[in-house]
Amino acid sequence: MTFYEDFSKVYDQVMDQSLYDDWLAFTKRHIAKSSKSIFELACGSGALSVLLAQNGYDVTALDISEDMLKLATKKAKSAGVEITWMQGDMRYLPPFAKFDVVTCYSDSLCYLSDLSEWGLAFEGVYSLLEEEGVFIFDVHSTYQIDEVFPDYSYHENEEDFAFLWDSYKGKVPHSIEHQLSFFIKEKDDQFVRKDELHVERTYESAEIVKMLNSVGFSCITLFSDFTDNSPSKDSARWFFICKK
């Protein structure tokens, strides 16, 4: 699993910021109006956590990367909101308070190495939810991984950094390898190159539902691409709504 060590330095500059509004809107449509507490897994730089807090939710957010949490803390302070930040691994969630809602967005589960690790995360989430609580997450579809990502290339050149993103078919079914290269301007005006390999893997939706059922989720609905529509054969992103 990547820790986004160098990616964190340019993450907000290369990430499509409008997606956070989409995740916020999707979340609000699919949780009870009485929901108060939200646990955000893999919160990254905290953009969605801040939006949730600004919308009146009591937010706790977890990420594996200390660098990302530093960015998130600064973002929350600038926005004037209170959020409980936790560093940790979604596969090994600690006993904690119960929550009305748990989210895990931005295909974060796809960074886990196999479906058994997804199961560990699902078990932890189930234990964190209140009775009738809701778990919402998204993942890449098999179409996105198998047909869209291979040979994808994205390059960005700014005054203080350059960012190269090239994707290649992975070594196991429904997997992709993203080769990231950063050229980051240091205080002495010299550029330093850093490289990271990000490996993602997804599964057939039926396999994911089966794993969710095995840990106790019994009411599962599947949508696609930030809409309330069922997935089609060329949907890029699957959204799962799971009720405890």
Automatic annotation (TrEMBL):
InterPro entries per record: Methyltransf_25, SAM-dependent_MTases_sf
Pfam families on file: Methyltransf_25
GO annotation (BP), single: methylation
Record bears the keyword Methyltransferase: yes
Coiled-coil regions, chain positions: none
Residues annotated as domain Methyltransferase: 38-133
Gene Ontology molecular function terms on file: methyltransferase activity
Keyword field contains Amino-acid biosynthesis: no
Signal sequence extent: none
Gene3D superfamilies according to UniProt: S-adenosyl-L-methionine-dependent methyltransferases, Vaccinia Virus protein VP39
CDD domains on file: AdoMet_MTases
SUPFAM superfamilies: S-adenosyl-L-methionine-dependent methyltransferases
Annotated keywords: Methyltransferase, Transferase, Ubiquinone
UniProt cross-references to PANTHER family, sorted A to Z: TRANS-ACONITATE 2-METHYLTRANSFERASE, TRANS-ACONITATE 2-METHYLTRANSFERASE-RELATED
The protein's name: Ubiquinone/menaquinone biosynthesis C-methylase UbiE
